[in-house]
C-alpha cells in the first residue's frame, strides 16, 4: 500500500505527469476495448463450435428415431435388437462432417465399428436439437402392404438400372439385396425387411458399399436397422487435419497441410503402400462388375488405412456411378465448364455451340488421384526414386477424361506407377 502511495506521489509531481495523465484515459479505453473484443470473439467461437457440434453430432436423435420405428414394426434388420437395448451398441466419437449424415465410431460385439445414419428430415430451422423427425413418412413408405416379392424384385432391379446402368450383372446384385433383407434366414422377406433395405438403397454410400463388397479397399458391411448401418472399424486418416473440427479445416493453408502430413503422417514407405492400395482402388472403380464409378471429391481426407497400412476408402459419399453422373450432365445448360460439375470435382466440358454439358469428364479418376499423390508421396521420397516418381506422376495427371484416350493410357500408366512403388518397398518390412 505504501509503495502505491509513493508511486502516486511521484506521478503527481513528475514533470511529465500532465502528459501521462492525458494519455491514461485513452490507454484505459483501449485496454477495456481489447479485453471486451477478446471476450466477445472467444464467446462467439465457443457458441459457433457448440452450435456446430450440436448440429453435426445428433446420434441420440438418430438412435431414438430408428428404435421407435423398430418397436412399431415399421422397420427391421440384423442390428435392431442390439441397437435398441442398453449397452449392446456403444456410440463413441462423433465423426460427422455434414448434419444429414451422422457418423460415429462405435463398439459392437467386441468389434470396432463405424455407425452411419441420416437424419435430413429433422434439420428444419425451427426444430430443436432433440426434436425427433418423422422419417417414416419419407424413407419407410415403400414398398406398400400388398407388394409381392416378385414386384419388389422388379422394383429393386429398376432402381439399380437407373443408378448403375443397364448391366447384365444386376440380377445377381438384386439377389444379394434380397438375401441381405432376409437377415433372419426364414426364406421370406417381410414388409419391415423390405422397407428397411429399400431405404438403405436410397443412401449413395450404401449402394456403393453393396456394389464394392467383394473389393478389399471398401469397408465391409456388418449390419443394419432401417436405414442405419454399420461397417468395420474406422480407418486411420492419412490427413492429420481431418481430426480438426469441420469449421476449422478450410482455414488451414495448403502449406500447413503439407507440414502436418510430414510431421504426423506415416513414414514414407508406409505412404507408398497406402498409395498402391489407392491405385488398386482406382482399378476396381474402372469397368467393374457393376459398371464404372467416378471419384467426385478427391482429397486426402478420404484416404484411410488399417493398422497394417492397407488402404481403405474412408468415405464413399462422393463416389458416384457413371450412370448417375451422365444423367446429371445430360441436357444440362451451361456457360462454362464449372456449370457442368457433379460433386466437387467431376467436371465435364461445356459445348460452346449448344450451351450444353458434354458426357465425358475432363479428368478421369487416375489423373485426379495422381495429382493427390504428388503432394502425398514426393515429400520425403528416397532421392534415387524422386525424379522418376515425379515424372510418372506428372505424366499421369495429364490423362484426359475422353474415353478414347483413357482406354489407351489408363492401365499402362497405372501399372507403371504400381511397379515403381512396389520395387522400392518389396522384400522389406513395409511390404
TrEMBL record:
What family, per the record? Belongs to the DIPK family.
Q: Which residues cross the membrane?
A: 29-48
Where does this protein come from, organism-wise?
Answer: Molossus molossus
Write down the PANTHER family for this protein, in alphabetical order. DIVERGENT PROTEIN KINASE DOMAIN 1B, DIVERGENT PROTEIN KINASE DOMAIN 1C-RELATED
Q: What is this protein called?
A: Divergent protein kinase domain 1B
The chain positions of domain FAM69 N-terminal read 22-180
One Gene Ontology molecular-function label: kinase activity
Q: Which InterPro entries does the entry mention? A: FAM69_kinase_dom, FAM69_N
Amino acid at each position: 500500500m505504501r509503495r502505491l502511495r509513493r508511486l502516486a506521489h511521484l506521478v503527481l509531481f513528475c514533470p511529465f505527469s500532465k502528459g501521462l495523465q492525458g494519455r491514461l484515459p485513452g490507454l484505459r479505453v483501449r485496454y477495456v476495448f481489447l479485453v471486451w473484443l477478446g471476450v466477445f470473439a472467444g464467446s462467439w467461437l465457443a457458441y459457433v463450435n457448440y452450435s456446430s457440434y450440436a448440429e453435426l453430432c445428433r446420434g441420440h436423435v438418430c438412435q431414438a428415431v430408428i428404435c421407435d420405428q423398430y418397436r412399431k414394426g415399421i422397420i427391421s434388420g440384423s442390428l435392431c435388437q442390439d441397437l435398441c437395448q442398453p449397452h449392446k451398441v456403444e456410440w463413441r466419437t462423433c465423426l460427422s462432417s455434414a448434419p444429414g449424415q451422422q457418423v460415429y465410431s462405435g463398439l459392437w460385439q467386441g468389434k470396432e465399428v463405424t455407425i452411419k445414419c441420416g437424419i435430413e428430415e429433422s434439420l428444419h430451422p425451427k426444430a430443436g436439437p432433440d426434436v425427433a423427425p418423422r422419417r417414416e413418412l419419407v424413407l419407410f413408405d415403400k414398398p406398400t402392404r400388398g407388394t409381392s416379392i416378385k414386384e419388389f424384385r422388379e422394383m429393386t432391379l429398376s432402381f439399380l438400372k437407373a443408378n448403375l446402368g443397364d448391366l447384365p450383372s444386376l440380377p445377381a446384385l438384386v439377389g444379394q439385396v434380397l438375401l441381405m433383407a432376409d437377415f433372419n434366414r426364414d426364406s421370406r422377406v417381410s414388409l419391415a425387411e423390405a422397407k428397411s433395405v429399400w431405404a438403405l438403397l436410397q443412401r449413395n454410400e450404401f449402394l456403393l458399399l453393396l456394389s464394392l463388397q467383394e473389393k478389399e479397399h471398401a469397408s465391409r458391411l456388418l449390419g443394419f436397422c432401417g436405414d442405419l448401418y454399420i461397417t468395420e472399424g474406422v480407418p486411420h486418416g492419412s490427413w492429420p487435419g481431418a481430426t480438426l473440427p469441420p469449421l476449422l479445416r478450410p482455414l488451414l493453408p495448403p502449406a500447413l497441410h503439407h507440414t502436418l502430413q510430414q510431421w504426423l503422417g506415416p513414414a514414407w514407405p508406409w505412404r507408398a503402400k497406402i498409395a498402391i492400395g489407392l491405385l488398386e482402388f482406382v482399378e476396381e472403380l474402372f469397368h467393374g462388375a457393376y459398371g464404372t464409378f467416378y471419384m467426385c471429391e478427391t482429397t486426402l481426407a478420404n484416404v484411410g488405412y488399417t493398422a497394417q497400412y492397407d488402404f481403405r476408402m474412408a468415405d464413399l459419399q462422393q463416389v458416384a456411378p457413371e450412370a448417375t453422373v451422365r444423367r446429371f450432365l445430360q441436357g444440362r445448360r451451361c456457360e462454362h465448364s464449372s456449370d457442368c460439375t457433379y460433386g466437387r470435382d467431376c467436371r465435364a466440358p461445356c459445348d460452346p455451340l449448344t450451351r450444353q454439358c458434354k458426357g465425358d469428364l475432363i479428368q478421369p479418376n487416375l489423373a485426379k488421384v495422381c495429382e493427390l499423390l504428388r503432394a502425398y508421396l514426393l515429400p520425403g521420397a528416397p532421392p534415387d526414386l524422386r525424379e522418376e516418381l515425379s515424372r510418372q506422376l506428372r505424366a499421369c495427371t495429364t490423362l484426359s477424361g475422353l474415353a478414347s484416350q483413357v482406354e489407351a493410357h489408363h492401365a499402362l500408366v497405372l501399372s507403371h506407377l504400381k511397379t515403381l512403388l512396389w520395387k522400392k518397398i518389396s522384400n522389406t518390412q513395409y511390404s
